[in-house]
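[job 4471] stage=fold_predict status=RUNNING
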Amino acid sequence: FKPMQFGRNLWIVPGGLEAPVPALHVLRLDPGLAFGTGTHPTTRLCLEWMDGHEFNGETVLDYGCGSGVLGITAAIKGATTVICVDNDPQALTATRDNAQRNAVADTIACLAPEQFEPRAADVVMANILAGPLVELAPRLNAALRQGGSLVLSGILEGQAQEVENAYAGAFPELEKKIMDGWVL
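[job 4471] inference complete, writing structure tokens
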């Protein structure tokens, strides 16, 4: 695990290493036992999208947060409220630890799915598998304010149509980006 660049201005840097000189936004990350370091194409797709998005003052939902990489990145980039949800207690612990390491712990709430009540988030992100994305469509749609951004990943190319169909009622046109057989 070494420093990695996403887009133009976003870097993930493991603890104990220095950030590269041109780093505008730096996430210090030690994933622990949770999924999410930025090395997988699904996470990379999300982080590259995030590099081009301004989060100033926004509320963000990171559903299936793993190590907290997406939620913490949103906080580093200016989100004022970030809700990280995961069904794995170790993921919530890793997210809290990584939020503390990045001095954004006051911005981030970590919740189990049964504790989460949908509210009007500006950005809803879910980097999980296609099956759960389809199952969660009503819940994730309810959590997004009108005109907000829905960012879904963890989808194999062959599963993209099924996920698209699940969200088509709320989002008649979805943009897709593909990397190594995975879809954002």
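[job 4471] summary: Residues 89-101 form the longest helix (13 residues).
[job 4471] exit 0
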